[in-house]
From TrEMBL:
Pfam families according to UniProt: Epimerase
Upper classification of the organism: Bacteria, Pseudomonadati, Bacteroidota, Cytophagia, Cytophagales
Official protein name in the record: NAD-dependent epimerase/dehydratase family protein
Domain NAD-dependent epimerase/dehydratase positions: 3-224
SUPFAM superfamilies, per database record: NAD(P)-binding Rossmann-fold domains (SSF51735)
Amino acid sequence: MKVLVTGATGLLGSRITRQLLDLGHSVSVLHRPSSDRSLLEDAARKVQWVEGDILDIVGLEAIFSEIDYVVHAAAMVSFIPRERRMMRQVNVEGTANVVNACLLAGVKKLCYISSVAALGRPETLQKSAPRPIEINEEQRWTDSTSNSEYSVTKYNAELEVWRGIAEGLNAVILNPSVILGEGDWLKSSTRLFKYVYDEKPFYTEGLLNYVDVADVSEAACRLLLSDISGERFIVSGGTVPYRKFFEDAAAAMHKKAPKWRVNTLLAECVWRFEAIRSFLTGSSPLLTRETARAAQHHFRFDGRKLTERTGIAYRPLQETLTRIGKSLKPVV
């Protein structure tokens, strides 16, 4: 099969690309001239590099005309207020362009990589519930201060995919939680490991929903080539308190674990200080209002539907941490 992957130079996209190659498919990678290709260095000669941009609908239509399947993993993740406009363009307009190009070209199937963020958070329940709130694929979006701007863009991007499905597009949606994997640990969720390696002293009270990048890749490839269509799947291997995650990650990397708890009041103070510092210096804030509040959340995402429908068994967290720790330490 001829498969095109957007976002293939990222943590998840590069893993999906290599897995599709291992399965014997012909893989094209949509990339911009400035893209960092280091995560696909080992597969650089096996893929077809196609220069393009998901914001260029005309260019997409020409590229997609020779493609059978599409994995749309390209997205912008940011919690910085000044980057919201670009994030809306990339995540919402870019996804709309991909959907339209798939429809026009008659692509056999689209696998859209969304996020659990697109499911939304029930604010009133979060404030009153005595235990973590479980969210599954039936969760309906509600406007809430618990939803980040990133959440809003991913929700609206999903609406474009559902619109495409209504117009006859064969598609499936994946909603992964925080993806843990080997990559550039100055980017995306891999920065969690950089935080541990640097022996930072603080941890928050919230819960981390996590999944191994290998499990998300396996889910994307299986669902892309399956008869399942018009459905969404949460991809989440488990839930753990941030303190426990940092302790286990530190043990895997032979580092000291954070020991000072950051409560809600302190987090609120820190993000305000960071907002002022960022405004005065023009640098990116280390903590924003959205990231400070997200780190205090107590939600649990239910990933059992994926296992029930595909048979995929999630990797244990300890196995994931051990593998990633060994991979990242020599990079320092």
